[in-house]
Specification:
The chain is an alpha/beta fold. It has one domain: Ribonuclease Z/Hydroxyacylglutathione hydrolase-like (Metallo-beta-lactamase, Chain A). It is about 40% helix and about 20% strand. The protein is built from 9 helices and 12 strands. The strands form 2 sheets. It has a 7-stranded mixed sheet with strand order 1-2-3-4-5-6-7. A 5-stranded mixed sheet has the order 8-9-10-11-12, with helices on one face. Helix 2 links the parallel strand 5 and strand 6. Helix 6 packs antiparallel against helix 7. The longest helix has 23 residues.
Length: about 325
């Protein structure tokens, strides 16, 4: 097993004494970020990566850093890049909200079936963009070709682990060194998203409620709820916010994402007023500073299509192509 700083899947960033962020390394098979927390008499993992290979390295890092393998795993939401690594920890308690447990058992299984069918073709499609003229498409290839390659390689062996401890609103996990608060912020990025708060350390693990210098993905959740969740995150006043994607950020990153989501709302409302069709959105890319964020292709236009469809639904119109 690699040492904590040698994994091809992630890098480790210390956030406080006994607290580390595991940040996805582009080209690896972690894809989402994770966290390692030394509670004093137990080791907690926040999220578990996309693949067993990345999760094995996470377990090795936890052992090297805390002297223990994971004693408890907290899953933030149901998306594959945050849950599938949990399968490599049989017998370790897995914590999630009651809603997320149901979502893993339903939409999570649907997602796995889709990955089994589509991962290899999507890998090839992403690889073909590596030499595209459009830099946004080249950036897509650099990130998503490994994502689909990891799925193509790992999906046939996936056994989804359902959470063994479910809660509704909040759960405190007490250790001899620190207490971790797991809190649901409701429907936002998905129908239910949870965060991990280490109040005394000024650290909040946000998972996909926060994307730092990266475009978010709106279509599985509630953008209005997401804005409320970001307000809640900012109110914690933490000094370090660990996103689901991108580098560790500050409160400014939380506010930047909220501003971006509000801007998407404004843009979609304007497109709707102008009678725009889905085809009119097909080639749009951001014209502001977020053009340099990761995932500009394809998330910017997919988010606009999603919000435009919401505008049409509210006005009783149907989708136009």
């Amino acid at each position: 097993m690699p040492s904590p700083d040698e994994s091809r899947h992630f890098t480790l960033e210390p956030l406080a004494d006994g607290v580390w962020a595991a940040i996805h390394r582009v080209g690896g098979w972690a894809v989402g970020n994770a966290g390692i927390v030394d509670l004093g008499d137990a080791t907690l993992l926040f999220d578990a990566f996309l693949t067993a290979a990345a999760a094995d390295d996470l377990a090795a890092a936890a052992l090297a850093l805390t002297g223990r393998g994971p004693d408890v795993i907290v899953l933030s939401h149901f998306h594959n890049d945050h849950i599938r690594g949990a399968q490599v920890f049989p017998g370790v308690p897995v914590v999630a909200t009651r809603a997320t447990r149901t979502l893993i058992d339903t939409l999570g299984r649907d997602e796995l079936a889709s990955d089994l069918e589509h991962a290899a073709p999507q890998r090839d499609r992403a690889a073909a963009m590596a030499d595209a003229d459009d830099p946004a498409r080249r950036a897509y290839a650099a990130y998503f070709e490994p994502y689909w390659a990891g799925l193509a390689a790992s999906a046939p062996g996936v056994t989804l682990r359902l959470p063994t401890i479910a809660f509704d609103d909040r759960l405190e996990i007490h250790g001899s060194r620190r207490t971790a608060l797991v809190r649901s912020l409701g429907a936002a990025h998905t129908p239910d998203d949870a965060i991990l708060v280490l109040e005394d350390d000024g650290v909040v693990f946000c998972s996909d409620l926060l994307f730092v210098r990266s475009h978010p993905y709106l279509a599985d959740g509630d953008p209005d709820g997401w804005l409320r969740a970001l307000d809640t995150l900012a109110a914690y006043g933490g000094s370090r916010f660990v996103p689901g994607h991108g580098p560790v950020g500050t409160e400014a990153a939380v506010r930047a994402l909220a501003e971006h989501i509000r801007s998407l709302h404004t843009t979609a409302a304007g497109l709707h007023r102008d009678g725009a069709s889905d085809d009119d959105v097909a080639d749009l890319l951001p014209l502001d500073a977020t053009a340099a964020w990761d995932f500009a292709y394809p998330f910017y236009r997919s988010n606009l299509r999603f919000l435009l469809a919401r505008e049409r639904a509210r006005s009783g119109q149907t989708t136009r192509s």
